């Protein structure tokens, strides 16, 4: 078996992946939930958590006007984020999974043109 070769940082990565999966499922459930119901997600912005609103709140600028990915990642590190996963989503946003400066698990969407935080979701403990 390969499990005996796992290092502690592998377990952290697995925990993060499981947490982000729970986060995505919770977001999907929150879309259909009534306003009175409680969600497992704490949002820092008033936007709805659906692809259309996320796409609208990010940039429509040409990719030539975006910060390149290396510059963006340096900015995120400077802001205190520990990034586990980074990707371009909806052809208009930078999406980050990892930890914020307070070491909370976070999913965040940024405007790739100016690195402005558009939406941030936390996993509640």
Query: What is the total number of structural domains?
Result: 1
Q: What is the residue-averaged pLDDT?
A: 74
Low-confidence stretches: 29-41
Please, how many helices?
Answer: 3
Give Rg in angstroms. 16 Å
SSE order in H/E notation? HEHHEEEE
Write the layout of secondary structure elements.
Elements: H1 8-32, E1 41-43, H2 51-57, H3 69-78, E2 82-89, E3 93-99, E4 105-110, E5 117-123
Antiparallel strand pairs: 1-5, 2-3, 3-4, 4-5
Structure report:
With 125 residues, the protein is an alpha+beta fold. It has one domain (7-123). Helices cover 34% and strands 25% of the residues. It contains 3 helices and 5 strands, in the order H-E-H-H-E-E-E-E. It has helices at 8-32, 51-57, 69-78; strands spanning 41-43, 82-89, 93-99, 105-110, 117-123. Strands 1-5-4-3-2 form a 5-stranded antiparallel β-sheet, sandwiched between helices. It is globular. The protein starts with 7 loop residues before the first helix and ends with a strand. The relative contact order is 0.18. The model is unreliable at 29-41 (pLDDT under 50).
